[in-house]
Amino acid sequence: MNTTTQRTFDDWAKAVAHCDEKKVLDAIRPVFDMLEQLHGEKKTHGNIQPKNLHVRGDDKIDITSFENCKNENIDRNSDYAPPEAQHDPTSLPTAAGDVYGLAAVIYYAICEEPPICASRRTEKQSEKLQLGVKPRAAIAEALEKVLSLKCEDRPTMVALRELLEATNSRVVDESATTDKHASIKMPEANIGQVQSGPKESGAVAQPAVTSSCSAATTTPTLPARTPAPMPGSPSFRLVERLPVNLTVGKSFEIKISDLFKEKRGSLKLEFLNADELGFQHEREKDALIGKPKLAGEQKLNVEVTLAETDGRRIFERTIGVTVNPDPDSLWKNLPSNQSDPYWKPDSDHTKPDDEFTPVARMLAASQRGRSHAHEGLFRDDDFLVRFHRATGWHLLVVADGAGAAKYSRCGSQIACKQSLDFIEQWIDGNQALLETAVRSLIENADGTMLKEKVAYPCFGKAAYEAQKAIAAEAGVHVPKAVMKDYATTLLLAVAKHTQSGWIIAAFSIGDGGIGLMRNDGQVKTLCTPDCGEFAGQTVFLTASNVMRTTEQILNRIHIAHETDLKTLVLMTDGVTDPKFPTEASLSAPEVWKEFWTELNTTVDLSSDNKEASTDLLKWLSFRSPGNHDDRTIVLLLPNPNSNPENTAP
Amino acid sequence: MRRLPVYLLLDTSGSMKGEPIEAVKVGLASLIASLRQDPHALETVHLCLMTFDRDIKTLVPLTSLDQFVLPEIMAPETGPTFTGLALKEVCTAVERDVIKSTKEQKGDWRPLLFLLTDGGASDIQLFNEMIPRVKQTGFGAVVGCAAGPKAKPEELKKVCGQVVALDTMDGHSFQAFFKWVSTAVSSGNVSMGAVSELALPSPPAELHVVC
After folding, report:
1. Are residue A101 and residue A249 in the same domain, yes or no?
2. Last residue of a domain, one of A149, A167, A186
3. A179 Cβ contact partners less than 8 Å away, ≥ 6 residues apart
4. Closest residue of chain B to A485, computed from CA coordinates
5. Do A320 and A351 reside in the same domain of the chain?
6. Is the domain of A164 the same as that of A273?
7. Which residues, numbered 144 to 183 in chain B, qualify as contacts with chain A under a Cβ-Cβ cut-off of 8 Å?
8. So what's the pLDDT on residue A73?
9. What is the pLDDT of residue A234?
10. Neighbours of A443 (CB within 10 A)
């Protein structure tokens, strides 16, 4: 069964054709052909129901799928099963039963509900068919005959077709001679008058079509029908609900014509409660505009005035309106639980005392995300910056604790501290090697030694030490915890200013980003983000498979030698997701330019501004729909006046 | 923008007709209303509503929560329950609709699937064939709800990471289920991706977790 390219008749009727007699008959026509042929061969279908019919893109029923639904076992409880099948469980499908089924399907399509089940009609023979929407007289008359409870009274398939085709041609003729826009549907105005309009006078019953069937006593009688509208008289049908949902405080504009399903003739709309909802009728644009005031399911009360030759008729209608709340108004900022053993402040930033080195400034800020604040959860991100004064190395690290890991706020904290503790120690014990490697990079433009003999053992071991420290913490935690509960990323960089410019080595496990920007606008990415195929999927320091081989570790290391460094930036994904949404954008100069312009114009990053990290923290609360994670950023800002000779070893 | 796609797959076979389907409709309406009170959900959640009986219908294709309109849901007369075919359709829909990350585009969050049924699958062979496919589709969570006495939780367990059971199919039970779905979806917003399967909030007393 192909459910994607075709619609079931049921869906099609609901969407397209309910009440539209001509469309229904046009769609059904191929079924006549097929059934006539079957019946001619003394065969039957036996299982005619809307759900067994599929409508093609061209609004015609697909015969092949229908034919495949042939069934010797009739669904006797169906609303579409003929009475004889319902009464006698042993009866076999008959051609007359198919006629009944098809008529019931047509009835369903036109009236939006199946005819009253044949079994119920025999139990209460006086019960009439209740029509949701009244079909035109000719059709109603025809269906009435065909849905006769006595199978011998029913026309043959050929006769049914003739009967219906006759009514169809009459429909077309009538509308063609009156008004080409006149719909064969019953306009709402005419139905509506039953509720609120004045009584229509002069109802003229349509002449019944002739039929070979005589009315049986059990034939259901249709209630009196409302006549079709007078030619040229105004009529309308409004939508049940606005075509789009709205949001509190957000401007919208909907064309008045989009509020009509059908509109004919001259009529005027008044929105009675527009003010209350924050709506206006903009007459120049002929549109409904405004900024909704109230969230929730609202009703727009509409007064429709029809101007007619014999006066005016007024209808009151309501249109459903769904108004979403403004997301910004819903955010809560609940403090995290300070008595938790792993509590840490909901935000953090560097203090001037730790920021300035002889050649640069290190600024950092970390802000709990809105989604965590909304639930009173902790900030899972962390950062740390240090300056190794003896050698002039700047050490910078950020870590992003996994939201789903219950102790990740502690994991990120341990990862930052432990990795920098180790790197400091390593530098202390390997100064000569470090200098040789740096010289090799500067003099031979070859970073291999720095990468393989310095960064590899130093960063690899630092990450390993961080893993070990987390494992130890998990081991002593009560109740018992595992490494995974402390899942965190780790992005770190070390940087040193020399006479020949900045030497930088970076290492990362997980998402987020490390990148640098030069004064000429060029950028360089110093990480390969570990992203999965879906958002938020990444790897963590705490996973056992991230540093299994030498190659895996080396791939995580990036080396740079920069003579014109503007800034080195480390960010968790709370910042990269909104600012560098794709992996490609992290190496795109224009994206960096935009990022830097925004940052630099919002935050005074000059060394005179002692509050720069506080300002940076404030900036971190920028709005970005859908991005409400914890945000952490670390900046290394070289001091333009620094004298490299003073600090170089 | 990264979306959190949520697929709701509802059994509308004949046995759901009447009170159960009415209760489901009320539950769905309250699910939508309560998600709309969650600012993060309003910005990220996209819903797809599919029903299954002898036919599989996509009543609402993947649509943002703010633009979602609850459709009419009907349960036909008696007939088979094509759960297997429904799973096939939902996997196809996910493969077609959900954006995966590449260098140039940011992927959606992992989709969530909630499957509600009150009976066993009629197409057992296809159902069994779908078990590995559902696993491959990359759902962040596949949650089954076995409603009423005729549901088969052990069958659902084969495709669902978590199955909850409802003793009765009345308004109260369905309300509790959908309220829990809302909490689960909201938590998906905060914590997706870190672990292989989304850790769901613990369900209320009306829902029994099937182990």
Report:
1. no
2. A186
3. A231, A232, A264
4. B195
5. no
6. no
7. none
8. 60
9. 74
10. 9
Q: Mapping DSSP to helix (H, G, I), strand (E, B) and coil, where does residue A186 land?
A: coil
Confidence class for position A543, pLDDT limits 50, 70, 90: confident
- For residues B58-69, give the mean pLDDT: 96
Count of Cβ atoms closer than 10 Å to residue A221 Cβ: 11
B61 preceded by a cis bond (ω within 30 of 0):
no
CA distance A186 to A19: 8
User: How far is Cα of residue A332 from the mean position of the Cα atoms in its chain?
Assistant: 23
Q: Are B81 and B120 in contact (CB under 8 A)?
A: yes
pLDDT (tens digit per residue) in B147-171:
999 999 999 999 999 899 999 888 8
A355 and A318 in one domain?
Answer: no
Class of B4-96+109-190 per CATH? alpha beta
Beta bridge partners of A92: none
Rounded to the nearest angstrom, the minimum Cα separation between B7 and chain A is 16
Chain B, window 82-121: residues with a beta carbon less than 8 angstroms from a chain A beta carbon: 85, 89, 92, 98, 100-110
List Cβ neighbours of A547 (8 Å cut-off, separation of 6 or more): A460, A463, A464, A509, A553, A556
Query: Are A309 and A378 within one domain?
Result: no
Q: Is A566 exposed, middle or buried (0-12, 13-18, 19+ CB in 10 A)?
A: buried
Which ipTM score applies to this complex? Answer: 0.89
For A361, the token pair is 């400034």
Give residues with Cβ within 8 angstroms of A160, minimum separation 6.
A32, A99, A102, A103, A142, A146, A154
The alpha-carbon gap from B125 to the nearest alpha carbon of chain A, in Å, equals: 16
With CA atoms as reference, the chain A residue closest to B93 would be A4
Interface contacts (A, B; CB < 8 Å): 144
Residues in chain B: 211
Whole-angstrom Cα distance, residue B181 to residue A441?
A: 57
Instruction: Report the percent of chain A where pLDDT is more than 90.
Output: 53
What is the nearest CA distance from B139 to chain A, expressed in angstroms? 10
> Does one domain contain both A320 and A353?
no
Answer yes or no: do A462 and A324 share one domain. no
Same domain membership, residue A173 and residue A244: no
Q: How far apart are CA A610 and CA A596, in angstroms?
A: 20
Flag whether residue B42 sits within 8 Å of chain A, measured between CB atoms: yes
Q: What is the DSSP letter of A158?
A: H
Structure tokens at A644: 């490299």
- pLDDT above 70 as % of chain B: 94
Q: How would residue B125 be classed by pLDDT, with cut points 50, 70 and 90? A: very high
Domain boundaries, chain B: 4-96+109-190
What is residue A538's predicted lDDT score, i.e. its pLDDT?
Answer: 85
